[in-house]
Amino acid sequence: MTSLRGFAVVDTETTGIRPGYRHRIAEIAVVHVDFSGEVTDEWSTLVNPDRDLGPQAIHGIRAAEVRRAPKFEQFAGDVLELFRGRVPVAHNLPFDAMHLRAEFARLDVDLSRYLSGGVCTMRLAGDVFPGMRRSLVECCKAVGVDGVRFHTALGDALATAQLFGRLVEGAPDLASFRLRGLPDVYGDLPSMPQGLVKPVHRQAAGHAEPHFLARLVDRVPREGKPEVDAYLAVLDRALLDRQISVSEADALIDVAHDLGLHKAEVIQLHHGYLRSLAQAAWADGHVSVGERRDLEAVAALLGLVADEVDLVLREEQPTRVERSRSQVVEVNIGGLVLRPGDRIVLTGTMRRQRGELTAEALALGLQVISSVSRKTRVVAAADPDSLSGKAKDARALGVPVVTEDAFVRALDAMKR
């Protein structure tokens, strides 16, 4: 039997409340604390939950981050080793234990007995300070723990570790009584492969992904001129919501490499794309303020300098004779346009209620369906890099995945 070596403080961020509703762990942290209450080690990683991320406004995790993170089964052995010989500690232990049991159960590992021997700091805080509020933030405030980043797995685990130390220090007899009553199950854990993957952490606040053009290299020799329709088709889909997600950037890079396009050739395609939008903007004889802003937004997304917009607008401006012949009509130079009868799919936890968006779409004559097919016009997602099954199906079928904001703008346009 492995001797007791200390405590393993654990925290998880999840896609929702109940594993029974197919919710998964999206981030996990384990912090080691010795018997004197000192933090001796910390470990954390984002987790690819293979589904949408649920309430992102709460945990703040983006799909662009977790899509490159390992899946739980790839580091489960590391977690078991972090637990081995240590008492599990968590704030609201039943919640974290519920999700940990579910994740390990998918791997045919029963962690129930081990987790039953844990300490819940929420319960312990209530025993030490009767009437104390339940939340980790309030408990930490009450005992003077500050300077932590709450609502991240590592931040909450470190805060819980400090809270645990203060509670034990403030009521050693009660804490000792609690620990003596725990079952001796800390070495009773199976072994699984370790070190298979490296942890992936959250990106720093304000982090910006490098422009996808920076990831294209002039390294693919070829003869002749390739067909570029495939690249432009992906670009059309990516720019529907006037945002290029990480998933779309990856798709553009893959297509460019498959075609053997050099970086300089891709930039030339981008210039031509912007020029075609400028031609469309001039079709009614004038360029509105909104059209110009749209051109500037597209230029920035394509990695073109702002002066390029002025240049193409000057070069594509029709002559006086051409303007006199043009009809004054509204021309949409790009972006998402929805029409009655279009099939749309919603995915993820959006800022607006799903029922509200659905009712508005139905009232405008759109068809709101639950599954994606080739006839689907767009999938509107809470996160454009969503890992939901609907978003995955859309990318496989070439159906655009757009942001909630772009979808709402398109609904507003249908009302005019």
Automatic annotation (TrEMBL):
<dbReference type="GO" id="GO:0045004">
    <property type="term" value="P:DNA replication proofreading"/>
</dbReference>
<dbReference type="InterPro" id="IPR036397">
    <property type="entry name" value="RNaseH_sf"/>
</dbReference>
<protein>
    <recommendedName>
        <fullName>Exonuclease domain-containing protein</fullName>
    </recommendedName>
</protein>
<dbReference type="GO" id="GO:0003676">
    <property type="term" value="F:nucleic acid binding"/>
</dbReference>
<dbReference type="InterPro" id="IPR036420">
    <property type="entry name" value="BRCT_dom_sf"/>
</dbReference>
<feature type="domain" description="Exonuclease">
    <location>
        <begin position="6"/>
        <end position="173"/>
    </location>
</feature>
<dbReference type="InterPro" id="IPR012337">
    <property type="entry name" value="RNaseH-like_sf"/>
</dbReference>
<dbReference type="Pfam" id="PF00929">
    <property type="entry name" value="RNase_T"/>
</dbReference>
<dbReference type="InterPro" id="IPR029024">
    <property type="entry name" value="TerB-like"/>
</dbReference>
<keyword id="KW-0269">Exonuclease</keyword>
<keyword id="KW-0540">Nuclease</keyword>
<dbReference type="GO" id="GO:0008408">
    <property type="term" value="F:3'-5' exonuclease activity"/>
</dbReference>
<keyword id="KW-0378">Hydrolase</keyword>
<dbReference type="InterPro" id="IPR013520">
    <property type="entry name" value="Ribonucl_H"/>
</dbReference>
<dbReference type="GO" id="GO:0005829">
    <property type="term" value="C:cytosol"/>
</dbReference>
